[in-house]
Amino acid sequence: MSLELQGMGVSRGIAIGRAHIVFHNKPDIREYLVDEDKIEQEVLRLQQATETAKSQLKSIRDNIPANAPTDVASFMDTHILMMQDSSLTKIPTNMIRTRRCNAEWALQLQRDALINVFDEMDDPYLRTRRNDVDHVVNRILRFLADENGHEHDVTEARLKGRIIIAEDLTPADTMLMQHQEVGAFVTEHGGATSHTTILARSLGIPAIVGVGSLRRYIQDNELLIIDGETGTLIAGADETSLAEYRERRNSFKQHIASLNRYKSGPTQTREGKSITLQANADLPEDITTISNTGAQGIGLYRTEFLYMNRTSPPEEEEQLAAYRKVVEGMNNQPVTIRTFDLGSDKTVDGGRNLNQAATNPALGLRAIRLCLKQPSMFRTQLRAILRASAFGKIRIMFPMLSNMQELLQAQHMLKQCMLELDHEGLDYDRHIETGAMIEIPASAICAEMFAKNVDFLSIGTNDLIQYTLAIDRIDDHVNYLYDPLHPAVLRLIKMTLDAGKKHNIPVSMCGEMAGDPKFTRLLLALGLDNFSMHPNALLEIKRVIHKTDMKQIPMNTLSIMDISDPYDAELFLEKINSHVH
Predict the structure, then answer these.
(1) Catalytic residue among 195, 417, 446, 534
(2) Terminal CA-to-CA distance of the chain, rounded, Å?
(3) DSSP 196-237
(4) Which of 157, 300, 485, 507 has the smallest number of Cβ neighbours within 10 A?
(5) What is the pLDDT of residues 397-425, one digit of tens each?
């Protein structure tokens, strides 16, 4: 008898293999007071465990295969930097000295404090960084307990082709598994924006996350089928199902190989309508991956990485170096830099404010609101972006605008920075374009007002859907309500696209909806002609566009905005896609 479990499919592909259950048992934390004369000895214990854990991680990083995606090294560097951060070194040390906590207890207390801060953040990407804190602290705790870390579960050579079943995985785990050619992995926790998810996509490993109590139902060495697109796990499948999925797996591999032919050449529909395809980027190191896809620039360059895991914000020269590396690496292709979109619990000095948790952080001080509240930090970033514009085509995008005053204030500060650079004799693009990110209902409804005052608009569907439907898409209790086809969402998208057309400015979409091929034809019908997405999704979207004849899309396509039942909307979407061959 077969068992089918459902989770969130986060990395496409079909895998068939034996289960390998990973138990990352957390060390038991003993809490006791250290004798006065042994306090410094306890401090040394913590320092040595941290250094050993850091050395182990550096060793793993240094042995990353040359052909591994840059995401892998970047995420592992993040964990190494966290081990050097004062929040995980000085603060626990002070606890040992002032409160006589033993090392494990002090580290645990600090972990809990940091995780509470991340849990309060409204931005899904930043909130999932709580997992990094957990991974790093657990690695140190294992050395405090005289263990050899937790690599033993994922470094065995017999993992080739195995389906990894785990509560959660670290970036180091994921990299090591890919190096040993594991078939897929399924975790009980994780969301669409977790490190595990991002790495799985980069590495091309089929993956499912968010399968609650997974390890209760799966036995070690049990034969499993994994569908990383639908989020389906099947145990105990019969021969008919196995044969079907083997055929689907082979077809998918052939399909992925066939996408390479779309790397060069223009992006056009069958009747010759040109479409712009750009990529989203998080780090300067992403440029190589993006260039290999044939992207027509970067439609969203996130700058938050510069502010993470440090005690003070980045200086102008550091930011300039990062932005310059990106723009020069894109060889005159446009780069749209989004000003920092940090949550309400990030203070101006880059540290974490543990005493001022927002009552409702999703509606609190974040993104453009924080930029305007902390003008010194904002001006530093604007100056760095302006100076980088002397080396290539850069556009500036302001996130989470809710009213015109915010936009006008931001543009005024930009003009002040221009005057400063003129006075200092520093070069920059005096015609640099500015844009508004449409990601809350208020800005979509007032899109015409914004369109009159900017050079471009960009729709951030991730937040737009969440704010429109009042749900948290990484909350397991309500994420089933996350619906890109909800009539309210589609109407707001159409409203924004119409505003851009009326005022003759380009409108792009940089949320996950833009990188999902099942929505491509619908978005084309709504009037979208500029997509920006994860680099790994670009060739698939380009293929769909190449095979689309706009005249064959049903005339009543826009009536999908009047369908209130989610099931009926999905059926209608299938109809839209089936009419195009």
Answers:
(1) 195
(2) 38
(3) HHHHHHHHT--EEE--TTHHHH--TT-EEEEETTTTEEEES-
(4) 157
(5) 999 999 999 999 999 999 999 999 999 99
Q: Does 256 reside within a domain?
A: no
Is 101 catalytic? The answer is no
Cβ burial of 34 (10 Å; 0-12, 13-18, 19+) is buried
pLDDT tens-digit profile of 237-254?
A: 999 999 999 999 999 989
Residue 253 lies in a domain: no
Contacts (Cβ under 8 Å, ≥6 apart) of 281: 287, 290, 298, 300, 301, 302, 326, 535
pLDDT digits (tens, 9 = 90+) for 384-397: 999 999 999 999 99
- Annotated catalytic residue, options 101, 417, 446, 510: 510
Exposed/middle/buried for residue 72 (C-beta within 10 Å: 0-12, 13-18, 19+) = buried
Strands 456-459 and 507-509: parallel
In whole angstroms, what is the distance from residue 509 CA to residue 278 CA? Answer: 10
The phi and psi torsions of 312 (rounded to 5 degrees) equal -140, 150
Find the angle CA(511)-CA(516)-CA(522) to the nearest 5 degrees. Answer: 95
Domain count across the chain = 3
**Are 499 and 377 in a shared domain?**
yes
The pair phi, psi for residue 403, each rounded to 5°, is: -150, 165
State percent of the chain over pLDDT 90.
Answer: 52
Task: Write down the residue that tokens 């930090």 correspond to.
Answer: 377
Tell me the pTM.
0.71
Cα(443)–Cα(168) distance, integer angstroms:
37
Phi-psi region at 425: left, alpha or beta (left = phi > 0; alpha = psi -120 to 50) = left
Domain finish residue from 104, 133, 149: 149
SS3 (DSSP) at 315: coil
Query: Is residue 417 flagged as an active site residue?
Result: no
3-state secondary structure of 352: strand
Query: Is residue 31, in this structure, part of any structural domain at all?
Result: no
Say yes or no: 317 and 301 in one domain: yes
Determine whether 254 is exposed, middle or buried from the number of CB atoms within 10 Å of its CB (0-12, 13-18, 19+): exposed
Query: Could you tell me how far CA 277 lies from the centroid of its own chain?
Result: 19
